[in-house]
Here is the input.
Amino acid sequence: MKLFETHAHLDLPDYNNDRDVLINKCFAGGIEYIINIGFNKETSLSSLELARKYLHLFATVGYHPHEATEFDAEVIKRLARDSNVLAIGETGLDFFRNLAPFPVQREVFFNQIRLALEYDLPLVVHDRNAHQECYRMMKKENVKHAVLHCFSGDLVFARQVLDEGWMISFTASITYPNSILDDVIRITPLEQMMVETDCPYLSPQSHRGKRNSPLLLHHVVEKIAQVKEMTPNDVAEKTFDNAYRFFRIPPDPVKRKSTKSGRKK
Ligand SMILES: [Zn+2]
Here is the structure.
């Protein structure tokens, strides 16, 4: 099974003891591509650093709503043109933990929506208990190219997202006994679906309490296959193609060349 991991945090200290061994094991074990996600200045830089090391690993740059008070547009502008950077994010709104004041979250999300449009990059959106506010802001700015990562919305929000042509990405939270996402999985066409681990967080039910990694991504695929009554292979293939297109994966030689200059424009 060939898989595309669309949301990982392999630059975090959780992987300091075995990062390179683990990443090589992922690539040897069927994970074809990995998108490593920045969520503040430090992790945007470390994601890019990791992407420069691996041919099939790419980075995103952005500020998570929890980090909104640290927002610095110059950091994103400086990094966004690097050919290893394929998206802006993760950004969005989090009215659940509410670690930054709402008005600051909105302002910083708005700025990153604008940057994504300006740099013609897809947007990786984190939404927690802020579904309608995310929807309103994204629609107002006429966002076309976005993924709702670790989808946690209801059916109403799912339909809104799908109608806009945005993507829905599932983590192993769909494997938890209290998950209410089966109906969302049912109504989401495979064409608008991607899969991710959000590792080191959100380990699948059978591995809860342990560190997550892309090696466990197949649990997400298997759960979707079970709900949609398809084969895991069909889900793997389709979500792979979606992610490949969504992130506009460049051909290998382009990336090899660009790691020297680091610039595409
Ligand atoms: Zn994340």
